[in-house]
């Protein structure tokens, strides 16, 4: 009887030892010391938007004038505990917390995704490729320090609705003058403008000006670009989340979580902050999610003294009163 009891105890001890060893040394890994912006030294972690080129490029956080390369540098440590070695895949996500819908709707013991949370302003790397990055092959018990970078940009999901003609620049007085001169150099065009002017009840000069502006504007409609400024980053507080997983875990992620610029098969998006904090990703033992203790506060300061740009497409007729125009008020693209 004692021998059977002893054998049972040894078997149980061996079983739990194997389970413990497998959990510690088996398929797992550990992640720690996540810092989302190690190269940004402001004590209160507040950044004022650099709006110098925002009208052309959209708002970028940060810009090259604020940090080298115009990017935040984030760091973390990872240790592989897989006996056979493995690659780890990681991705950083950001989300504006000041203007957001709560990610879930609580019902009994479950937290269902709030459909409105996909409207939140969230993103990832800030580049065209928004997939996961890899650490490369790690041997058993190998620990590495990972350094990577990201930035916050407009239209981070590259949504098609914000693509279209290039509206990032104004129209210069020189461009209008050149088109006016070109129209005047074409006798047939001038004759057509004369007929059109009489129909519209304007002078020939006014009609030629109108057509010059229309021609320039019409030529721009064929350009297709990502107008990121149409969904610029919001001000307020930003939260940062690091996700590290195995190759198998990465491949099992929903498309719009793997890459925030993709859609699900039904055309929808999944907010990664819901998926990893409250959804299926929160119970995936092959994935580790770290929220940073540090938040970034973004503020905007505008200076009306910089001037007033008058859009010629809004005031297309010639003959407007421009007596108040000056170096800081007018239609020229340099002022734009």
Explain briefly what this protein structure is:
The protein is of the alpha+beta class and 336 residues long. 25% of the residues lie in helices and 26% in strands.
Description:
The protein has 336 residues and is of the alpha+beta class. Strands 2, 5, 8, 9, 14, 15 and 16 form a seven-stranded mixed sheet that branches. Helix 4 packs across helix 5. The chain is elongated.
pLDDT < 50 runs, ≥5 residues:
21-27
Number of strands: 18
Q: Could you estimate the helical fraction of the residues in percent?
A: 25-40%
> Radius of gyration in whole Å, from Cα?
29 Å
C-alpha end-to-end distance: 93 Å
Shape: elongated
Total helix count? 8
Instruction: Please tell me the overall pLDDT.
Output: 87
User: Order of helices and strands, N to C?
Assistant: HEEHEEEEEEEEEEHHHEEHHHEEEE
Percentage of residues in DSSP E strands:
25-35%
């Amino acid at each position: 009887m004692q021998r059977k009891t002893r054998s049972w105890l040894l078997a149980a001890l061996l079983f739990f030892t194997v389970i413990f060893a497998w959990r510690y040394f088996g398929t797992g890994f550990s992640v720690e010391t996540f810092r989302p912006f190690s190269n940004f030294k402001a004590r209160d972690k507040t950044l004022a938007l650099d709006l110098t080129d925002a009208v052309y490029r959209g708002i970028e956080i940060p810009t090259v004038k604020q940090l080298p390369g115009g990017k935040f540098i984030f760091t973390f440590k990872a240790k592989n505990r897989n006996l056979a070695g493995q690659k780890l895949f990681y991705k950083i996500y950001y989300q504006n917390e000041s203007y957001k819908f709560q990610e879930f709707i609580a019902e009994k013991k479950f937290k269902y995704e709030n459909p409105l949370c996909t409207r939140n302003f969230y993103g990832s790397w800030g580049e065209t490729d928004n997939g996961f990055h890899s650490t490369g092959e790690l041997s058993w018990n190998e620990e590495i320090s990972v350094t990577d970078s990201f930035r916050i940009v407009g239209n981070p999901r590259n949504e098609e609705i914000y693509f279209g003609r290039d509206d990032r620049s104004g129209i210069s007085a020189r461009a209008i003058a050149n088109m006016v001169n070109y129209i005047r150099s074409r006798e047939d065009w001038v004759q057509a403008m004369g007929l059109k002017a009489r129909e519209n009840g304007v002078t020939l000069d006014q009609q030629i000006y109108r057509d010059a502006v229309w021609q320039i504007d019409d030529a721009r409609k064929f350009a297709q670009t990502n107008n990121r400024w149409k969904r610029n980053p919001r001000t307020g507080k930003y939260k940062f989340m690091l996700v590290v997983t195995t190759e198998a875990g990465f491949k099992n992620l929903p498309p719009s979580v793997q890459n925030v610029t993709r859609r699900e098969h039904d055309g929808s998006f999944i907010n990664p902050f819901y998926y990893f904090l409250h959804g299926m990703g929160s119970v995936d033992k092959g994935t580790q999610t770290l929220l940073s203790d540090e938040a970034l506060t973004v503020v905007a300061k505008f200076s009306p003294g910089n001037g007033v740009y008058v859009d010629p497409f809004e005031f297309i007729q010639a003959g407007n009163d421009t007596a108040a125009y000056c170096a800081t008020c007018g239609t020229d693209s340099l002022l734009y």
